[in-house]
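Our consortium's second objective concerns turning raw sequence data into structural hypotheses that experimental partners can test. To show how far this objective has progressed, the report includes one record in full. It was chosen at random from the queue rather than selected for favorable results. The single chain below, 236 residues long, was entered without modification.
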Amino acid sequence: MSAMYKIHAINTLLCCLLTLSVTSVYSGEHPTETTGEDLAQVNTDDLTTKAKKLYKIDSHGNRLPDESHTWECVEDADTKLFWQKRDPSSALHGHDSYNWYQPEQTPSGQARTNPDLLGIDSSCYGYRADDPDSYCNTNAFTERVNQSNYCGYNDWRLPTADELLSLVDPTRSDLTDQSAIDVHYFPFKEHFAYWTNTVNDEGVVVTVIQDDILLNNSERNDRLLVRLVRGQSNAE
C-alpha cells in the first residue's frame, strides 16, 4: 500500500470519527450531551432539489432587491412564511437566548415552565426585574417583537418544528462545509439549538440544531436561541 493511499485512508477514518462524535447543545451555562438515540435527521426524501425562493423584506413588509445590503426579515415564497432575520447589530433581534415558556402549552402551576417560579435570568436585552414583559423567555420575547411591529406585522410567533425545518434548502443540505439554510438571507446564523413550539408525547419541547437535526432532550429552562415566524404555512 502506497504512503499516499495510507494517508488518504487515515484522513477518511478521522472524518468518520468526527462525524460520529457527541454533539453538545448550547444552554447558556452548560452543554447538554446528546446521543444517537436523541437525534433524528430530518427526512429529505420528499424535498425537491429546487433551490428555495427567498426575499429580503424591509421594515414595512415590502420586498427589496436581492442585492440589498440592509433588510429586516425574510419571506419564504415557497411556504408563504416570514422569518426573523436575527442580527447582532439589533438589540431586540440580536443573539440573546431564552427559556421556553408558552402559556398556551403550559399547565398552570408547573414550576419548570412558569417564569414567575423559575430563577430569573437577566441576560437578555431590556430585562427589568420588576417587569414580567421583559423576562428572558420565549413568550415575553415574542410579545416584545410584536409590540415593535416588526416588518410591519404584530403576529409573530414561535415556529413549529416542521416550519423551522422548512428553511432547509435542498440544494445546500448535503454540503457538509456549508449551512443548510441560505446565509445570503440569514447571514447571522448560529450553530446552537433553536426552540420550537412543538411538544412531543413525553412533554419534551422539540428543538432544532445545525439547521436540520431534531433534538428531544432539551429542558424548558435551558437557554436556547429563537427565530420567530409569522404567517400560515402551506408546506404541511
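The partners drew two points from this record. Strands lie at 24-25, 32-33, 39-41, 54-57, 73-76, 81-84, 194-199, 205-209, 213-215, 229-230. Residues 7 and 13 are 10 Å apart (CA to CA). Both points have been shared with the crystallography group to help prioritize constructs.
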